[in-house]
């Protein structure tokens, strides 16, 4: 399953390249650019296993990207982490699907995770990393009735994190693969 999720970006690369060509405001047309208000979600349903991988600028979720030094900032980071630790609610998975969390990982410099080792060799990269913190969440669910997963409803993501304006989703499910951009008004997509 992990290979399937890792292969997802490559399977949808032509779509991403076409989308990047349409986006003139991305720096140098790069894919995966850090853009406030925009999150990315990879979703794969394979048999009874559902994997979701969310990547978002911390600004979308926490409201800032600097290290939390004040009590208020620390409380906000802790509250966001607690919300991310409840993916069944956050992703509004239907109870009829019988999904339970099999594995969950949250990473961000705001959570005390260290920056990538590559950043240690380049001062400019360290500065950029500090100014542009991301939050990465990976969830693996085991679903006893995966047929009940007809849609993935991201409305709770938009309600919980209103600074997120859109989420770019790459989805592999029983009906094939698709790349779609969802907003609060169009927050549900079909598997």
TrEMBL record:
Pfam families: ZrgA. InterPro entries: ZrgA-like. This is Zinc-binding protein. It comes from Pseudomonas silesiensis. It comes from the Bacteria. Residues 1-20 form the signal peptide. The keyword Glycoprotein does not apply. Keywords: Signal. Residues 110-132 are annotated as: Disordered. Residues 120-132 have a biased composition (Basic and acidic residues).
